[in-house]
Amino acid sequence: MAWWKKDRAIESAVAKSAALDRSQAVIEFDLDGTIVAANENFLSLFGYALPEIIGKHHSLLVDASEQSSESYREFWKKLAGGECVVAESKRLSSQSRMGCPCSLFHSKYSPSVT
Description:
The chain has 5 helices and 4 strands; from the N terminus they run H-E-E-H-H-H-H-E-E. By secondary structure, the chain is an alpha+beta fold. The chain has one domain (20-109): Beta-Lactamase, CATH 3.30.450.20. The strands form 2 sheets. The protein has a two-stranded antiparallel sheet with strand order 1-2. The chain has a two-stranded antiparallel sheet with strand order 3-4. Strand 1 (27-29) and strand 2 form a beta hairpin. The two termini are 20 Å apart.
């Protein structure tokens, strides 16, 4: 690939990433479920500050019954295997942990292998 085509491909990828960051709530995990990043949209929606969730496990966002379920283990197995997972997901916000109800989201989990 010519250098200018490669530069253009990189610019395009950066622009797409920025557009998603502006319009979607995005959180990033290691394949073991450890939270490594989250954008402002996610933090605002779920009521967390970044230092509260970095290094914590995804299970922070899931109620106890789901955490112990076979479907939750299968969810992480699929992601670790490189599969995308699209589902309606109940997720807990910081307010959910204080007695407010959890919320239902249309979620898409896409492994990004580098």
